[in-house]
Amino acid sequence: MSEKIATREAYGKALVELGEQNKNVVVLDADLAGATMTKFFKAAHPDRFFDCGIAEANMMNIGAGLSTMGLIPFCSTFAMFGAGRAYEQIRNSIAYPKFNVKICCSHAGVSVGEDGGSHQSIEDIGLMRLIPGMTVIVPADANEARKATFALAEFQGPAYMRLARLATPVFEEDYPFEIGKANVLREGKDVAVFACGLMVNEALEAAKLLSAEGIEISVINVHTIKPIDAACVTEYAQKCGNVVTVEEHSVIGGLGDAVADVLMGKVCCKFRKIGVNDQFGQSGKAADVLREYGLTADQIAARIKEAL
Amino acid sequence: MNTAELSRVCRQVRRDIINMTANAGSGHPGGSLSAVELMVSTFYNHMRVDPKNPKAEDRDRFVLSKGHAAPCYYAVLAELGFISRDEFKNFRQLNSILQGHPDCKKVPGVDASTGSLGQGCSIAVGMALGAKVQGKDTKVFTLLGDGECQEGQIWEALMSAAHYKLDNLTVLVDNNGLQIDGSNDEVTSLGDLAAKLRAFGFDLHEIDGHDLDAVEAALSAPTTAGKPKAILAHTVKGKGVSFMENQVGWHGKAPNEEQRQQALKELED
User: Is the ipTM above a cut-off of 0.85?
Assistant: First the structure.
C-alpha cells in the first residue's frame, strides 16, 4: 500500500480532466464544493459549475433539466443530503424519466467521523438500489474513483456513486474498471468475501491476517452494487461454499442484500453480512468510529473465522 | 392565432378534458379546466415546437409542474398533432401512453415527467440554464399550481431562476385558489403571491387567466434582460362547467355520464 487519498478527492480531480475532454460535462453542488471536491472543477471550468446553494432538491432537478438539453450533469453533495433528503427528486425526476444525471455523493458511511450520526449515511446504497434502473457504484480507492468518474460520463442513464471523506490507501495493483463487472483481488478457497468501498482494503488486510493462520479467503471488489455481477457472485459462492459480505453501510438494503438476492434459491452456502447493525453512527475519529462498528481488518478477520 | 381562434381551441380542449376524465372514471378536471387558456395560448402562439419532430433540438420547452392537469396537456398536444385523439380513450388505462400524470418517456411533446408537486419548476430552471450554457435561444415555460407553491422546493427554484438571471424562463401560476383539502387560505395561506414573486426577483404580470387577450399580452410582454418572468394568473377551478366552478370537490373526481352530458352541453361551440 502506498499513499492515502480519499475517493472524493480522486473524483474531484477526475472531473477537471473530464471537463477538458467533454464540453457537455457540467457540475452542480449544494454549498459543499470544498468538501465534495468539486472545487477543482469550479476553479478549472467556472462557466460550467453551478453552486445551487443549500437546496439539494432543487439541485437534483436542475440536473434533470440540464440533462434534457444534452448536457451531462454531475450533482454532488453529501450522501445524507443527496440520496437521503433528495431521494424523491432522484426517484421521480431523474430515474423515472431515465435522465442522464450522475449523482456523486461524498461523506458516505460512518468514516465521516467527527460530524456524527446526523451526517453519516448508512442507508444510501439501499435507497439508491431500490430505484428501478438506477446504477449504483462504490469505488474502493482513489484509482477506482477516478476510473468510475470517466466511466460514468460515457454511461448513458441515471447513476449514483458513493464516495468517502476519509483518505485511505491507494491499491498498488492497477486493474481495469468496467461498470457491472466485479474485480477478484485475491483468490482463496475457504471463504468468498464480497466487499465494496473502503471495506475492500480492510478485507484485503483481513485476508493477510487469516492467511497467517492458514485460512485463505477470496476478496471480491463489488464496486457496482447495481447491476451486480451475478455471474461472479454465483461462481465464488459456489467455489467457496461460504460467503461473507463487508460494507460500510447498514446490513439492511446494501451490498449484503444485493449479494443475497443473487444467491437466494440458487446456491447453497453459508452466508454472513458484516456492516452497521441497524443503528445510527456517532462522532469520533474515523478510525475509532470504524472500530466501534466492527469495520476494521482485525475485527472483520475475527468475524470471518466465526463463519467457518 | 387570434383570440377568437384560440377561444375555439380552448372550448375543444375543455370538452376533451371532460371526456377523458369521464371515460377514465378518474382524473383531475378542476385544475385542468383552470389551466386551459394559459396552456393553449403558450403552446399556440409563444413556443417553437414541431409536432412532426417533437425532439427537434431547437424546440422551446414546457414543463407542466402541476402534472395532475395532464388531461389539459394531452388535449393541447392532440390539437397540435403531437398525439392522436384516439389515445384519449386509453387515458389512465393499462399500457397507455397517457399516464395519470405526464410521462416524458411515453408522450411525444412532453419533456419532463411530472406529477410529484414542487419539482417541475426546478426542472424548467435546469432547462433554461442549460440553454444559457449552450448559447441557445431556447425559451422555457413552466406551469405551477397555486397549492403547489406550498412546496418549499418551488421557492428554491424561483430563487435560483433569479440568481442565474434566466430571462429565457416564464413561470405561469394557475392561481385557482383551491386545493384538495379546501381553499388555499383554509389549508395554508400563500399570502401575497404577487409580492412574493416580485421579491424573488421576477418580472411579474398579474392577469385574469381566462382572458385570452390578457394572457397573450403577458406572454408577449418583452422580458427585462437578466430577469425571469412570472405570470400570476387568477383563474377559476373547473372553469367553463357551471357545477364544477370554484368547487373543491372537483379537484380529483371524474364526472359521471349525466354530468358529462351536461358539461358538454355547456361547452358547445
Answer: yes
